[in-house]
Design goal:
This protein is α+β, with helices and mostly antiparallel strands. It is built from 6 helices and 7 strands, in the order ααααβββββββαα. Helix content is 40%, strand content 26%.
């Protein structure tokens, strides 16, 4: 009887472990897994650009929330490769969002110019809870929009942002100045929005006011 109970316990625990592993794996499609796992963690991924129609269509889609599991090998590899991409000399920038490497998940790397040594940090499932009424003028470019840089006047000077971290933590903080612009830019990507959309809206508002 004891051996039977022990056997049942092993089966139950094994099934639980398998289900947990399946949960981690199943949050990425087979195509996404292939894109993420086809190279090492330090190898940059291809940056999707609006100059290619299929890329442009994907960049206009909303991203899906990610299950934060520090043991998910696919998630960790994606995060690592996104960092390698934003730090690569061919795609160097102050931030990158998962859609820019073809993965519609709510993940982004942002450079923190509000902290010593300007570190990069990864944010998962970010949501901007509040925008300041005060705006700021800033020049913006984008890895997905080659050879363009524009000045915007509609970015909030400060934002209250909420997000998850890779160690399954959760943060809420007020971010200001140019770092706030980076957060807004990358979170826009997760919602299928490009900075050119804000520029177009500013131009329309200017025309109406004349």
């Amino acid at each position: 009887m004891v051996s039977k109970i022990y056997l049942v316990a092993i089966v139950v625990l094994g099934s639980f472990a398998f289900a947990k592993a399946q949960k981690s794996t199943n949050q990425f499609t087979k195509e996404q897994q292939s894109m993420i796992m086809d190279a090492g963690a330090t190898v940059p991924m291809r940056v999707f650009k609006i100059t290619k129609e299929s890329d442009s269509l994907l960049l206009r889609k909303n991203s899906i929330a990610v299950d934060v599991d520090p043991k998910d090998a696919t998630l960790k590899k994606l995060v690592d490769r996104m960092y390698a991409t934003v730090r690569d000399s061919l795609s160097l920038g102050a931030g990158i969002a998962a859609p820019q490497v073809g993965i519609l998940k709510r993940i982004a790397w942002v450079q923190r110019f509000d902290k010593p040594d300007f570190p990069f940090e990864v944010i998962l499932n970010p949501v901007i809870k509040q925008y300041s009424e005060k705006k700021q003028e800033c020049a913006e470019g984008c890895l997905s929009i080659p050879d363009r840089r524009e000045t915007l006047n509609s970015r909030a000077y400060a934002i209250l942002v909420e997000y998850d971290t890779m160690d399954a933590g959760h943060k809420i903080e007020m971010v200001e100045d140019f770092t706030a612009v980076i957060f807004q830019h990358e979170i826009d990507h997760l919602n299928g929005i490009l900075y050119l959309d804000h520029l177009a809206q500013e131009q329309r508002d200017a025309e109406r006011s004349n």
